[in-house]
Design goal:
The protein is α+β, with helices and mostly antiparallel strands and about 500 residues long. The chain is built from ten helices and twelve strands. The strands form three sheets. The protein has a five-stranded antiparallel sheet, with helices on both faces. Helix 1 runs antiparallel to helix 4 and helix 9 runs antiparallel to helix 10. It is rod-shaped. The structure holds adenosine-5'-diphosphate (ADP).
Length: about 500
């Protein structure tokens, strides 16, 4: 059986009420126990004092008056206490009660209607125990009594003087206290339960409102936000955090949509070219050289298509954190040298020289193939945008625990407003500025975003140092101690950085 309510409001109220009830119960019980103890102690003291006062008075009267009965009456008249009765027993075991308003009565019954002979066994047992206190409780059919006694010898008689106090008043007082407790506690608990529920309801109402609003926010309505609260309490903070999360989700969804749109756009161009060329080639009889030209165009377009698909595949795997990264010790200067050698031919075609002399020996850890790809992309861009007769410079430098590879060209530079976007996917500044011929990279605006992902997944970075009329300078940094490039960043972090 489920005891706890399902809602937080209900649970809060339940626990609050339960704890409060237990506390009240513990508090009430201990107050009652203390009160009972104190009341008992005080009334015992009072009884002992009263008995001492009466016996002293009786001793004084007996010394003065010969008639002992009269001395008893006198003492009873002078010393009397509301609910205390006195009696005494002589050495023959004969009981005499002392009513406060008259003389002694010899029939063994006192005004309290207690059969005094019932005290005999109590007095006998206490005497055996030789107790100092000489106090006991008598449970009589007429009620409960507290008994105090005192052995005295008065006027040659050996007496046991007894004081009897009904416990009725004390019991009534305690009973009243219990009654008040039994009435007050449930009322207090009910009020506290209600107040607690209202309090929890009030405190949690913004969350209820938030969940109502959050329920209607769908992928199609990600621009919606939760209502902001004026107070900056925990719930206000939560609202801000959820709104931030929604903002990031919205941006990521928008990015995904843009990515899909851009990707299909990029794929459409080569596919259209292939279709158009094949349609024309098949439409009528073509000479062999015409067919060859058409096939060259198809080859170029399909090559571009496969590079775009390859790049998209790599980015998709990188986003999912599933792109495998080799992790081996490598000579960075050799990887740079290989990339430079690979690009010297295409550069020479446009009368561009690559200056990469004196590369210092540098060992790093990483994936040589991916780092090579990054460098090829930088060199390809540099050559693509450099004027004929110019030089692309490649330099390596060790700084602050990292190796830097700087690639500088004398191209037209990147416009200032485009510079923050060149690392974004599918971003191209101006297609007309490049020569547009086949290069190692796709030319679909994916090269730099893939290069950035490669750099960051190695714990390094790729940045545009400067770009202007005198050319552009890119810098790739890789830490020398990046022993675990894959572990340096989680898949999600890599994906988010590559998602830019
Ligand atoms: P692509 O693969 O189309 O070259 P990239 O991501 O490599 O795309 O580059 C993005 C854009 O940045 C390019 O379209 C180009 O305009 C600009 N860019 C990159 N490198 C250079 C450079 N060295 N000089 C001038 N512009 C550059």
């Amino acid at each position: 059986m489920r005891l706890q309510p399902r809602s937080v409001r209900g649970r809060l109220t339940f626990w609050y009420t339960l704890v409060l009830s237990l506390m009240l119960l513990a508090f009430g019980t201990s107050v009652f126990a203390v009160m009972k103890r104190v009341l008992n102690g005080r009334s015992d003291l009072f009884l002992l004092d009263a008995l001492a006062a009466f016996s002293n008075e009786l001793a004084a009267e007996a010394a003065e008056i010969r008639d002992f009965d009269r001395a008893v009456t006198m003492a009873a008249r002078d010393v009397h206490f509301g609910d205390i009765d006195f009696a005494f027993r002589d050495s023959n075991g004969q009981w005499t009660s002392v009513p406060s308003d008259g003389g002694p009565v010899h029939d063994g019954m006192v005004t309290t209607s207690v059969d005094l002979t019932r005290l005999d066994p109590i007095l006998a047992s206490e005497a055996e125990q030789s107790s100092d206190e000489l106090l006991a409780t008598l449970v009589d059919p007429t009620g409960e009594f507290r008994v105090a006694w005192l052995p005295r010898t008065l006027a040659g008689r050996e007496l046991t003087i007894v004081g009897l106090q009904s416990r009725l008043f004390l019991q009534q007082t305690l009973r009243t206290a219990i009654l008040i407790f039994l009435i007050a506690v449930p009322i207090a608990v009910i009020v506290a339960c209600f107040a607690g529920y209202m309090l929890a309801r009030g405190a949690l109402s913004p969350i209820v409102e938030m969940s109502r609003r959050a329920r209607i926010i769908t992928a199609a309505r990600l621009d919606d936000r939760l209502p902001l609260r004026a107070t900056r309490d925990e719930i206000g903070e939560l609202t801000v955090i959820i709104n931030d999360l929604l903002g990031r989700l919205e941006a990521s969804f928008a990015q995904q949509r843009r990515f899909v749109a851009d990707a299909s756009h990029e794929l459409r161009t080569p596919v259209s070219i292939i279709r158009a060329e094949t349609d024309i080639a098949l439409a009528r009889h073509r000479t062999e050289s015409e067919l060859r030209d058409a096939l060259l165009v198809v080859d170029d377009a399909s090559g571009r298509l496969s590079r775009i698909v390859e790049d998209l595949f790599l980015l998709a795997r990188a986003d999912a954190g599933r792109q495998p990264l080799r992790h081996e010790e490598l000579y960075l200067n050799e990887v740079v040298g290989d990339a430079v050698r690979g690009m010297r031919g295409p550069a020479a075609l446009h009368d561009i020289r690559i200056d990469a002399d004196a590369l210092p020996e540098a060992t790093v850890h990483g994936d040589p193939e991916l780092i090579g790809r990054l460098l090829l992309n930088l060199l390809d861009n540099a050559i693509k945008y450099s004027p004929a007769g110019s030089t692309v410079t490649v330099r390596m430098k060790h700084r602050a625990g990292a190796w830097e590879v700087v690639v500088a060209d004398n191209g037209p530079g990147i416009p200032a407003d485009a510079q923050p976007h060149i690392f974004d996917r599918f971003y191209r500044v101006d297609i007309a500025r490049s020569r547009g011929e086949r290069g190692r990279t796709s030319g679909a605006g994916l090269g730099l975003s893939i290069a950035t992902w490669i750099a960051e997944s190695h714990g390094g970075s790729l940045e545009l140092v400067r770009s202007g009329a005198e050319g552009s300078v890119f810098r790739f940094t890789i830490p020398t101690d990046a022993r675990d490039p894959v572990g340096a960043q989680s898949g999600d972090e890599r994906a988010s950085s590559a998602l830019r």
